[in-house]
Structures are given as structure tokens and as C-alpha cells.
Write a structure and sequence with these properties.
Layout lengths: L5 E3 L1 H9 L3 E4 L3 H6 L6 E2 L18 E4 L4 H11 L6 E4 L2 H4 L7
Parallel strand pairs: 1-5, 2-3, 2-4, 4-5
Length: 102
């Protein structure tokens, strides 16, 4: 289980996905449609505050974006609320080498 606000390498994220972590992709719909991690959910960063009901407070959540800046902001936002098991992927989708859906 990652520490609150931890940064995970893409390889670690791949392991966490296999173990059931929820990947929250905070990019735009266009970026997501181009390429995303299978099973991830799209919650653009601008919609995150309105869509909190889609996230359980105690589930493992890993925020992902294109390079890492938006996912870091999203993870910090969630940690500032009641979410206790949040991380973000270092390097974003640019660093991801695992499987993707087009």
C-alpha cells in the first residue's frame, strides 16, 4: 500500500493495477481517447471536485496524466480531503510502457 501522496514508477503502477488499484486519468477526453491505461477511468482534473462520488475514500487510487503535473495536483487535492490511499504516477503517460487502449 503506498504512503499518502507517494509517487510510483510506471512499473509499480502496473503491479498495482493487477492488484486492483483504481487508475484515475485526469487528462482531457482527447488525450484519453488517444491512449490510456486499460481499466482506467477518465476524470479530467477540472471535473474532479464534482465527481468525487465515483471514488471510494479507502480504495487505492493512482492519478495519471500526460507528464505528471496534473496528476500530482489531483493526488494532493484528494489527500487534502478524506482519501487515505492516493498516489500519482511519475512521468505520466509519457513514461508508461505497459499496455494501453487506443
Amino acid at each position: 500500500m503506498p504512503d499518502n501522496g507517494s509517487r510510483l514508477a510506471p512499473e509499480e503502477v502496473e503491479e498495482r493495477v493487477a492488484a486492483g488499484a483504481k487508475i484515475v486519468d485526469v487528462r482531457t477526453a482527447e488525450e484519453y481517447e488517444d491512449r490510456h491505461i486499460p481499466g482506467s477511468i477518465l476524470v479530467p482534473i477540472g471535473e474532479l471536485a464534482r465527481r468525487l462520488e465515483e471514488l471510494l475514500e479507502d480504495e487505492e487510487i493512482i492519478c495519471v496524466c500526460e507528464r505528471g503535473a496534473r496528476s500530482l495536483r489531483a493526488a494532493q487535492f484528494l489527500i487534502g480531503l478524506v482519501y487515505t490511499n492516493v498516489a500519482e504516477m511519475e512521468g505520466g503517460m509519457q513514461a508508461w510502457t505497459g499496455p494501453t487502449d487506443p
